[in-house]
Amino acid sequence: MRRLAPVLALPLLFATPALADPLRDAVAKDMPAVMPLYRDLHANPELSMKEVNTAAKLAVEARKLGFKVTEKVGVTGVVAVMENGPGPVLLIRADMDGLPVPEQTGLPFASKAKGVSATGVETSVMHACGHDTHMTAWVATAKRLAAMKDQWSGTLVMILQPGEETSEGAKAMLADGLFTRFPKPQYALAFHDSASLPAGTIGYTSGPAAATVDSVDLIVKGLGGHGAVPQATKDPIVLASRIVGALQTLVSRELDPQDAAVVTVGSFQAGAKHNVIPDEAKLLLTVRTYNDKARELMLGGIARIAKGEAIAAGVPEDKMPVVTVQRDTSTPAAINTPEFTARMAGFFAARFGKDRVTAVPPPMVGEDFGRYRDADKSIQSLLFWVGGVPRAKWDAAGGDLTTLPSLHSPFWAPEAETVISTATEAMTAAALDILKKG
């Protein structure tokens, strides 16, 4: 996941309620006990679908709080259930995986962890997307709700999900019976730290909160030969270059300007020697859309442009480009239910003050949290953001987010305690409202 679009005209100071707040005070008292857990998680990240030690560590914490805990759901996922009388079922999710990024934050507890990727390559690992703050807030929220059982009625299903970064985890947990082995939720909540909001600010989007993500492989075929005799070849590098350029017109000239999409060529692989024209080139693309119409326009357009450019280059019919959409790994859009989002946005504004709660533009990031609502459209779902940029750095940037580390950056170091305390208060208060007695 990457940064959100810029948010303008945020106030310099946060409004804070004048009167003491019991929940806020309790969360503040919990912070000294949970921050060592954050530092431990930050220093010991694990790659997607390999979060074995992370899951085991947090399962212990949930059991201590009285939850019924099941491990290894969807490979390394954890499901912690607390039944507390009649009422709705609320799912609260945190994701666990780190990224193959060498940390450069300079923090005293910076990760030195190594891992082996799915392709067998050893790599440094870092919580460059802030999932360590998500997990810590998950534990802190579980602690508050367990301590406040007399104030709510219903069922909590708190899940720790693997593989968000690879879009595998939610799918794996659902396939392993998340909605059949455990109480199926009527509500689903999650938050994500933000590198585009000042620390302690809550951001929300009604409708699409993350885009549909498709990965596309494009094999461009040609006729190889000697680099000194190009006239005897059909150069796939030149053809692939034309395709890359033409693909930019899909968004700029074929998509309704009121809609949004991204088509990015993230990899261009061809050839192995200076003087040899290869037989083929391989392009790897990511496609981001919000709706089915735009999605099919982009995916169909990629195939059409690739074939058209090949015909223009004189490539024979039996060597037309091969376009493969990796639909098994496609991630559906994360849709925030409008009515539920409006309810929670108003609730957060009343609790934190309007200065700390703001609507943000829908980003083009991917988030497999959308799979839970996609599996059952009756679920009321909300993924919201909690700003992590330290106030001094936010002010110094003057609204220019390009001067700040983004999510997935080796330099991303959110103001962790502010993120965790804000998220814990927001999640706990939301759960108490959703599961309120009567």
From TrEMBL:
Keywords: Hydrolase, Signal. Residues 215-305 form the Peptidase M20 dimerisation domain. It comes from Sphingomonas colocasiae. The lineage of its organism: Bacteria, Pseudomonadati, Pseudomonadota, Alphaproteobacteria, Sphingomonadales. This is Amidohydrolase. It comes from the Bacteria. Residues 1-20 form the signal peptide.
